[in-house]
Amino acid sequence: MSHQDELIATDILAYLDAQEHKSFLRFITCGSVDDGKSTLIGRLLYDSKLVYEDQLAAVEHDSKKSGTTGSKPDLALLVDGLAAEREQGITIDVAYRFFSTDKRKFIVADTPGHEQYTRNMATGASTADLAIILIDARNGVQVQTRRHSYIASLLGIRHVVVAINKMDLVDFSQHAFNSIEAEYRSFAEDLDFEEIVFIPMSALDGDNITRRSERCEWYDHKTLMEHLETVEITKARNDCGFRLPVQWVNRPDLDFRGYAGTIAAGTVKLGDEIIVTPSGQRSKVKAIVTQSGELEEAQADQAITLTLEDEIDISRGDLLCSKGNPAEQSDQFAAHLIWMNENMMFPGRQYLLKTNNQLVSATITELKHKVDVNNFAHEAGKTLALNEVGVCNISLAKPIAFDPYKDNRHTGSFVLINRQTNETVGVGMLDFSLRRAANVHWQALEVGKPERATQKHQKPAVLWFTGLSGAGKSTIANFVEKKLFDLGRHTYILDGDNVRHGLNNDLGFTDADRVENIRRVSETAKLMSDAGLITLVSFISPFRAERQMARALMDDGEFVEIYVNTPLEVAESRDVKGLYKKARAGELENFTGISSDYQPPRHAEIEVNTVGTSAEQAAEQIVDYLTEKGYLLVR
User: Fold this and answer.
1) Domain 329-438 is of which CATH architecture?
2) Which residues are catalytic?
3) How far apart (Å, rounded) are the C-alpha atoms in residues 225 and 209?
4) What are phi and psi of 183, to 5 degrees?
5) Which runs of E-coded beta strand occur in 79-182?
6) Angstrom distance (rounded) from CA 570 to CA 572
7) pLDDT tens-digit series, residues 250-276
8) CATH topology classification for 7-230
9) Neighbours of 573 (CB within 10 A)
10) Which of the residues 65, 91, 173, 330 has the least number of beta carbons within 10 Å of its own beta carbon?
11) C-alpha–C-alpha distance, residues 87 and 67, integer Å
């Protein structure tokens, strides 16, 4: 909604022109639970006379049913739109509101305070210029206050207002205000904030929101609205030259080819020379096309279509850069990562990484440390849980163009996506390229996989046996290898127990170690497949994600998943090694099927049930499959 202005009635064109040329500020409200974030935004809208009469009437009606302010209108209901939010009196989703005053236009994001919704707070902060961090005057600085402050700093917010709210409940005590300010300043010393402003207020009653409080005579600085209207936001970020991520190649007819996207940084003018990454091709800007017509110049955040003087190959996902300052390229990065999923992050597991318009396979190769948001200490760890922040190394399947996040928010940020569910599981900031890793290249060899396989009269294959401990995987794999050996074929078995005596003897049985266990074995199996062998891999491999990762490493048709389907009670009754007995007694932690999950295959190439089938019969079934599918070439 726009600020009420007499020009609306007298000169609508002058009013629209004034609106167009106002400065613009995006900010968020964040902090701990029930510190008054939604109430504050409602008060800003209400006191600025930006609420329609029917909206206010609805709020007054709903306040009697689900409000939390007694006889007063619950202004938080102007923002909390979900039924669950109104029923519980909390913010769950990010609520965006546009409003304007006679001095400036605003978009405010009301973000949740509950820890489980921290990911929503990070979403709101990712595009904000300023953060209002609310603190309940009665409770002081809380864990969520620290977490949200750290995330705001990490995501590039440099201007902060610490709104010490509910001062009416401590009789507007200057001592209480000063104590909270001192505590917060001490905590925030190591955060990358350029400006921190402290304002005592009561969002419920409107003190120091848009008017000075008569109950707080000792405070003689700006009200919140005065500060929001006049704060000068530093625009040093994105000063890395021109950047246009190509979102769409516009080709409506034979006479027009344009490259559409939103400028991520810098400016571009007619005649400017640009360079395309990753191809390195160069050209000059022929036209800057917008919906409103052609421009002489365009700048950051404008949606444009560029046409070039030369016909060069440019596709969605390419990055157009200024000639003298092209983006970097790499496939190995150090990055900060905020984990946003209930399922933990495991190094070695494959995800999809999306940045700009690129989508590429990614693996977190190492979690260097976790960050304690209370004191910024670096903590050792192998995994990240929901809402935890860590510094990690990431490896990509192919190089991407990027800028470090500190230089450009748009081209230095990314999200991680679960390959199986397509859920967004993490958000991150690229710190720098690991150049030493990017300089390692695959060495071409004279003799390749086809020649090695033909010599052995077979097609390479990875027979991946998965199932519970005691299911019979190793027994069946041994029978299969004997049969293949008798047929003159070349094989090797990678058995779970045997590999843990050497290659993986440094790994335990936590979920993180299991993921790394399978990653190493998958890479080993890939090398054996390249040697032309039929490789039999006998591992519990409890997680679908890692089995899918192993499959993705192999060429099409090389990976044969064999599900040894043995019910838990049958496997436990065999218990040759006595492991189930120890697990039931609590002597073995993270034992699959008892205290750790097993995810059975959904679409295995072969499934054998050892309850009604002997190990030798199962092996015969597998060899018949290999013969039928052409893995065993005729001599």
Assistant:
1) Beta Barrel (2.40)
2) 541
3) 6
4) -65, -45
5) 95-100, 104-110, 130-136, 159-165
6) 5
7) 988 888 999 999 999 899 999 999 999
8) Rossmann fold (3.40.50)
9) 10
10) 65
11) 9
